Amino acid sequence: MSTTKIAVVFATADGQTHKIAENIAALLRERGAIADVTDGHLMPDDFPFHEYDGAIVGGSIHMGKNTPFMEELIVTHSQALVHMPTAFFAISLSSTGIAAEEDEDEADEHISALLDHTHWRPRLVGLFAGGLRYTQYGFVKRQVASDVYERLNWVSIDRFTYAYLHIVTERKERHDQQIGGAG
User: Fold this and answer.
1) Residue 159: helix, strand or coil by DSSP?
2) How confident is the model at residue 115 (pLDDT cuts 50, 70, 90)?
């Protein structure tokens, strides 16, 4: 069986989504996959998804809204994404436990709305706590914050990554068996 190749695409506002994307790629590589991390803002419209066995796409929810670019990225690449197993993750401050439970429900609703609007159906969806990088923000954001928070739950991110790798690997094995059995 050939090596599994996965694109990890992210759109970030404050760098947290990039950090998670790099961690996901490192975990995939530890398990023998080839993982290429790409900043969605720099990704060409003709990105070669056809060269990959799967894709993980990540974005963030800020102030109760999806990163506007995320919807554009998904729509632009929707034809490629529907032909492979995909996963989506979003990070949100509401998932840190700092915000009220209603805010986490609202984050889930934003993810559902994004997926409904784009008609994209990833095989796996994860919502992770983000980080509030108080010292890196401007005056307005600092007024809202009272401390530096990094609430990334790496165990949840690891589980998400391994579950996705299992999905892609099983599909690839079935595909390779079909090709091998056809000859």
Assistant:
1) helix
2) confident
CB-based contacts of 59, cutoff 8 Å, min separation 6: 10, 11, 12, 17, 40, 66, 67, 69, 70, 73, 88, 89, 90, 91
Closest CA relative to residue 130, chosen from 166, 90, 167: 90
- Per DSSP, 59 falls in state E
Task: Report the interhelical angle of 16-30 vs 154-182 (nearest 10°).
Answer: 50
Beta-bridge mates of residue 86? 55
Distance CA 30, CA 101 (A): 35
Return the biggest CA–CA distance within the chain.
66
Domain chopping of the chain, boundaries? 5-182
- pLDDT number for residue 81: 93
Please provide the size of the chain in residues: 183
Phi/psi for 6 (5° steps) reads -130, 135
Report which secondary-structure segment, H or E, holds 141.
Answer: helix 139-144
Average pLDDT on 36-42 reads 94
pTM above 0.90, yes or no: no
Cα–Cα distances in angstroms (integers) from residue 93 to residues 2, 65, 140, in the given order? 39, 11, 16
Given a cut of 90, whether residue 61 has pLDDT beyond it is no
CATH topology of domain 5-182: Rossmann fold (3.40.50)
**pLDDT at residue 101 in the model:** 46
The whole-angstrom separation of Cα 88 and Cα 177 is 27
